[in-house]
Design goal:
Blueprint: H1 2-17, H2 20-31, H3 38-56, H4 64-74, E1 75-76, E2 79-80
Antiparallel strand pairs: 1-2
Length: about 80
């Protein structure tokens, strides 16, 4: 179960960053993970697919807090990265 726990943590962290490229990369990596059962792999991939679809369709929540978080992530030391 330790490997599954690690994968769940990776998926959680990736979803928390809201970066589609990272989600897609992990989605592909999970396809080749032979240490997970088919069901466990499917469940984690489905979490990623759902987040990608929602983000791609613009259904993610947008609020002042989200805007501030995004601005903070994009700027470091007053410079846009």
């Amino acid at each position: 179960m330790a490997h599954l726990d690690d994968i769940i943590s990776q998926v959680d962290e990736t979803l928390g960053r809201h970066v589609i490229i990272e989600m897609n990369t992990l989605l592909i990596a999970l396809s080749d993970d032979d240490q997970l059962s088919r069901e466990d792999r499917y469940l984690q991939q489905q979490r990623l697919r759902t987040a990608i679809a929602q983000k791609g369709n613009g259904h993610h929540r947008s609020s002042k807090e989200d805007d501030d978080t995004r601005r903070e992530q994009l700027t470091k030391g007053g410079e846009i990265l």
